[in-house]
Amino acid sequence: MRRKQVNTLGFVLSEKAGVAVVGIKTGLIMPTDDIVEVTMDAVEDIVDDGDIVCVTEAVVARSQNRYITCDELAEDVKNKLGIRSDGTVAVISPIVSRNRFALVLQAIARAVNKGRVVVQLTVPRDEVGNQVIDEEFANNRLRFKKVLRSLQEVRGNTPQMNVLIREIIAALKFQELGYSVSAIRKITGTGIADITLLDKDGRKVIAEVTFENLSGAASKAIGIGNDDNADIAMAVAVDLQAQEIAIVEATSFIAGKAQPETYKYDERQAFYEASDVITVGEIGERLFPHPVTGIDYGRMYARTIESEGAQAEIVFTNNPLAVFNFGHIDGIIIGAVHERESLKNLFLSFGTKTPMLTVQDIGPEPWGVIGSNVSDIEKGILKLLPDNADDVCDSIKDRAREKTGKDIEVLIFGDGAYKDPDTGIYELADPYPSIGCSRGLRSASLRQGAKLKLLVETMFREGHSREEIYETLRKQQPSRETLGTTPRNITGILATMADLAAGSADAGTPVVLIRNFPFKPAK
User: Fold this and answer.
1) Residue 392 vs residues 85, 147, 259: alpha-carbon distances, Å
2) DSSP letters of 352-410?
3) Nearest to 155 by CA among 164, 143, 146, 145
4) N or C: which end of the chain has fewer CB within 10 A?
5) Which parts of 274-316 fold into alpha helices (H)?
6) How far apart are CA 62 and CA 31, in angstroms?
7) What is the pLDDT of residue 418?
8) Given this structure, which CATH class describes domain 135-273?
């Protein structure tokens, strides 16, 4: 017996096929093109009843000529915040991205080109998983600073507290010099030296810390270094009263071939006492390149601000309110995409009277600069998300009915809602995976169901036959008592499938057709 086949898009699907997702190539879509007709030209010969036609937001926005320049955005920021060119703006928890935020930040800096921009970056990653700062460095530094603050609060005249304080200050200084701190023996309970480190070349370094007897510390460090198979032994003297640190390589010092390098830390005392904040000044020359792009986004954002003439202050902290510790703030812009409203409420609950906007409030409605992308980096032009996305989808749906007689649904998709397990990056930098959809999808219920594999395995172990299991599954309806799949928004699933099929590297398939995807209207 011949198997019944369905011819779809030039290839054959068995009638047993489930959901099919296919990218469809189109010609170049330009500003002023009619996206409704462009979409219909691509799918009119192949659509069928129940199909879902997905169009990437990028070409819809392009057809609508949805662009804004940095000059226009800077003017919008000034007007909406009521800020002068010599004012200070705090930018809260933005994602770190050349494509998504660098030009937005440039426009903000242009609005206060004679003032300052304070950028608060979350530690160690932004809200979509991009590395902002090395996790081990950040965790160690913040932990050392918290311990230091606690010790300073309780030390009184206890000499042992001063011993621990000296060692933590020495560890903080070593971090600034580019070393990675592996252990502080009296704090972490590991290592046999006061401090165990790795230098920039990965060599093991041990350090002994003293108050004033540098020679004694050097001799002790050499002995411990030999016992601990260290590559380098260092001696450190920390003078808490003079707020000075002297560091020297122990073997050369004992041989009379080296003198200690002395550092004043009085100006850094405030940094050390800010236990939930790391500043660029504390990092020194250390770089934190993104594991995929190789960009140190903190430094890139600083350069972006300074290129407009404004002063840059980059603050690494998970406490957004810490920006108020860096001088008077004339305006606040919440840079986060998904956490923008909760962060806004945090500042309001704190009682701030400072004018405040989110990234949805700057630029044109409905989304502002959320989901914007670089269109021309040299000319400073951003492409925005589409306008009237639901209406566009309804127009395509109605046009399909008019031209083909088929009843389809339409969706405009942005970033898919998935997390890359290798990089830890959550791809969703748009507000939602679906930017808009036609009326049938707008009324769709959440997708949910019973876990098929669990039911089959349970019933098999209970002795049911294949036919009995099949009949039970056919009648099974998910309930609160049934272990089911996590309910999900239909449009989020569809948009994510479309984004994965279309690809984010401009594969030339801005239209995606999804077939055999069942959904029900909401009750």
Assistant:
1) 39, 57, 73
2) --S-EEETTTSSSTTTTTTT-EEEETTTTEEEPPPSSHHHHHHHHHHHHHHHH----EE
3) 164
4) N
5) 280-283, 297-306
6) 5
7) 83
8) alpha beta
Region 260-272: mean pLDDT is 88
Helical axes 389-404 vs 35-43, angle rounded to 10°: 40
Which residue in 39, 38, 18, 8 sits closest to 512, CA to CA? 39
Q: Which two tokens stand for residue 386?
A: 């589409």
pLDDT digits (tens, 9 = 90+) for 164-205: 999 999 999 999 999 999 999 888 778 899 999 999 999 999
What are phi and psi for residue 493, nearest 5 degrees? Answer: -65, -50
Structural fold of domain 68-133+288-382: Rossmann fold (3.40.50)
pTM score, two decimals? 0.86
Determine contact, residues 376/352, Cβ cutoff 8 Å. Answer: no
- pLDDT in the model for residue 481: 45
- Domain ranges for the chain, please list them: 5-65+387-447+488-515, 68-133+288-382, 135-273
Evaluate if residue 484 carries a pLDDT over 90.
Answer: no
Element housing 163 (H / E): helix 159-176
pLDDT at residue 342 in the model: 97
Nearest-10 crossing angle of helices 135-154, 159-176? 150
pLDDT tens profile 205-245:
999 999 989 999 999 999 999 999 999 999 999 999 999 99
Measured CA to CA, the distance from residue 297 to residue 205 in angstroms comes to: 29
- CATH number of this structure's domain 5-65+387-447+488-515, picked from the four choices 3.30.70.60, 3.30.1330.100, 3.30.930.10, 3.40.309.10: 3.30.1330.100
**Which positions ≥6 away from 275 have C-beta within 8 Å?**
142, 145, 146, 148, 149
